Amino acid sequence: MSGSTSLYVDKPTIFHRLTARSKLALLVGVLTTAYVFGNPVVVAVPLVALFVALVYAGGWRNVKRLSFVIVAVFLVGFVLWPAFTPPGDTVVFRTPWFAVTTYELLFALGRSERIVAFILGGLLFITTTSNEEIVTGLRSLGLPYAFCFAVGTALRLFPTFLGATGTVRQAQAARGHEVSGANPIERFRAYIPLIVPVFMTAVRSVQTQAMALEARGFDPRRDRTFYDKPTFGTVDWAVVVVGLVLVVGSVWLSFQGYGQV
Amino acid sequence: MREAFTMWRDTRMIMLVAVVAAVYAAILVPFKAFQIIPGFVSVRPANVFPVIFGLMFGPAAAWGSAIGNLIGDIFGGTLSPGSIFGFVGNFFYAMVGYKLWGSLGPLSSGNEPDFRSNTGTQLAEYVVIAAVASALTASTIAWGLDTLGLAPFPAISISIGVNNFLTSAILGPILLFLLWGRVKDLGLLYPDVMRSEDLPDVGTSRTQLAAYGFLVVAFVWIAVGTFVAPPGSTFQLVLGAVGLVLAFALAAVSGERLSSIVS
Description:
The structure holds two protein chains of two kinds.
Chain A (H helix, E strand, L loop, with lengths): L13 H4 L2 H17 L3 H17 L3 H6 L1 H14 L10 E4 L4 E3 H27 L2 H10 L4 H30 L9 H32 L18 H22 L6
Antiparallel strand pairs in A: 1-2
Helix pairs in contact in A: 2-3, 2-6, 2-10, 3-6, 5-6, 7-8, 8-9
Chain B lengths: L2 H4 L4 H18 L6 E3 L3 E2 L5 H10 L1 H18 L5 H19 L18 H29 L5 H33 L4 H4 L10 H24 L6 H20 L4 H4 L2
Antiparallel strand pairs in B: 1-2
Helix pairs in contact in B: 2-3, 2-4, 3-4, 3-5, 3-7, 4-5, 5-6, 6-7, 6-9, 6-10, 7-9, 9-10
């Protein structure tokens, strides 16, 4: 895996030691709390928890790398939602074109925090789970082996094709084809001629790879073993219970009317 | 939809899933920086691939596009519960291509999509398919994001729908013209790879009915969801649930005609 594409950070933290299944269970629990409540103060709790966990797990580099997307997602949600929300009573500020009420402001803030919490949750999972663990986790969730194999192969091939795009780009540039520049439309147009060679390079490999697999006895209908199959230990069970408690507790509290705008 | 499951018996189809996913993701990720609605909609020249891959690789492209979009979310840093709807939406995006080609009655050209002969009618058929695929994908994703409270349906449906349609409608015919013959020569078109008994054996009238069903569901869902149903409302929720169930039901009952057209 190319270091430039992977967001996985190899670090001996408690999150890294958990299996993919228990990490998913914990994430479902935390993200449910971000989903069922609307009050920005309440939604801030799972948001801050995820941020702290992410920094602890070594994901600060990833946060910085994606800071543009995270900030933009927050701001876009904050601007979009008041336009699609029923107005409340108290006007916070008024312009000649529109007025913003307290309800709209709190609603939009809660929704924006929720989006960021979801993205940080995904980032925490990717930061602490390698590609191999993702594939093993999918299999342990009961997904068919052939599907898991396809996902694993795609994850392995993706950086190769990304690299092939770079190689083709350099080859075309050597022939005078300009693909850099500040104008995004020009860059977009310049990338089009790169698509055909990248695609044909990829497709040509299908026949040979399929033959190589079958020569090694690959059979999608047969079960198979994994070299590094993580055991589901006591800590994993405890984490699953925490996730379950978070789901049940937050849903119950929200039905009781807590944490809403 | 039988073929979407029977294809997993064939090693070459499984490799096609992986390659389609990897190529789709490899073209998606470099453009993640060009955001239209940050975090949700970006400039995606890769959007041309699901429809043309769907025509070339059939069910392998449907799974490959779904997985490729997920990989794009993972490496682009936008993995979230909304990615589940991105998975389903991109599955439909590629599936609609091979389900509808040749099944649209008077709108169908009757040729394989090589854009070498009968180009005008092929173009018309392709544009209809690109529009249906884009609308169905946009509705699925926008409904999911609206249900999760991440973004309002109208904002997302229009931007994804227009973005997907323009890219696939403009670039698709050019790429099919360039690629169809080459892929066919490699023997990798799905009718050449899959055994005939693994493809759905469905009558022409049912295939045609299902194709028009897709057309109606896609356009009604996106129009009502965008212009009538308020975002986050129960109406929006029910509309999307009905739309999604109908889309899966149509996929289940429909066949495909492309394999009988490919010579």
